[in-house]
C-alpha cells in the first residue's frame, strides 16, 4: 500500500515539474465551434514543447496559459493550396523558442489576438504566401525580431500591439515588413 502511494506521489511531482506537453493537449483536442481542432489550455498552467499544424482549421484558446518551447522550433503552421491550414490563437504567452514562437509557411492563414511572445529567436515569422492578422499582442525581449517577414508575397495586419527590447528590431528582416 505504501509503495503504491509513494509511486503515485512521485509520478505526480514529476508531471508537475515537467509540465503537460502542448502536443498531448493538441492530440487530445476534438472539433468545436466550427474548428477541426479546438484546443483549450488551462489558466495558470505551463505547457511544454512544440506542435505543428499542417491541415485543418485550429483554434487555441489560451486562457492565459504559458507555452514554454524549451528552445524548440515553436508552433508552426504549413499549408498548400490543396491542403489548407489555419491557426487562430488567443490569450497565450509563448516563451523560450529556439527559433520562432509562431511560424507561418506555405499558404497558411491565422489570427493572433492578445498573445505575448517573450524570449524567442523571433516572436512570429511568416514567409511564402501566408496571410495573418495580429492584434493586441506583445513582443518582448526576442533575440532577433519581434515580427519577421521573409519574401514579398506574405500579407499581414498588425494592430494595437507593443514591441519592447527586441534585440535586432521590432519588425523587419526583409523588405516586406
Automatic annotation (TrEMBL):
Instruction: Report TM segments.
Output: none
Q: Which Pfam families does the record cross-reference, listed alphabetically?
A: Beta_helix (PF13229)
Domain Right handed beta helix stretches = 54-175
Q: Which residues form a coiled coil?
A: none
SMART domains to which the protein is assigned, alphabetical: PbH1 (SM00710)
The signal sequence is none
Q: Which InterPro entries match?
A: Beta_helix (IPR039448), PbH1 (IPR006626), Pectin_lyas_fold (IPR012334), Pectin_lyase_fold/virulence (IPR011050)
What protein name is recorded for this chain? Right handed beta helix domain-containing protein
Which organism is the protein's source? marine metagenome
Amino acid at each position: 500500500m505504501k509503495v503504491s502511494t509513494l509511486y503515485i506521489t512521485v509520478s505526480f511531482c514529476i508531471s508537475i515539474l515537467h509540465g503537460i506537453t502542448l502536443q498531448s493537449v493538441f492530440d487530445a483536442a476534438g472539433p468545436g465551434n466550427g474548428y477541426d481542432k479546438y484546443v483549450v489550455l488551462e489558466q495558470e498552467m505551463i505547457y511544454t514543447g512544440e506542435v505543428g499544424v499542417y491541415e485543418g482549421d485550429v483554434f487555441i484558446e489560451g486562457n492565459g496559459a504559458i507555452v514554454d518551447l524549451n528552445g524548440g522550433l515553436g508552433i508552426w503552421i504549413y499549408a498548400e493550396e490543396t491542403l489548407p491550414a489555419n491557426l487562430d490563437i488567443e490569450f497565450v504567452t509563448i516563451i523560450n523558442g529556439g527559433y520562432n514562437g509562431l511560424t507561418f509557411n506555405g499558404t497558411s492563414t491565422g489570427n493572433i489576438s492578445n498573445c505575448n511572445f517573450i524570449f524567442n529567436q523571433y516572436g512570429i515569422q511568416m514567409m511564402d504566401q501566408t496571410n495573418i492578422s495580429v492584434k493586441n499582442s506583445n513582443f518582448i525581449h526576442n533575440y532577433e525580431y519581434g515580427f519577421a517577414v521573409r519574401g514579398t508575397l506574405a500579407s499581414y495586419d498588425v494592430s494595437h500591439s507593443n514591441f519592447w527590447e527586441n534585440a535586432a528590431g521590432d519588425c523587419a528582416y526583409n523588405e516586406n515588413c
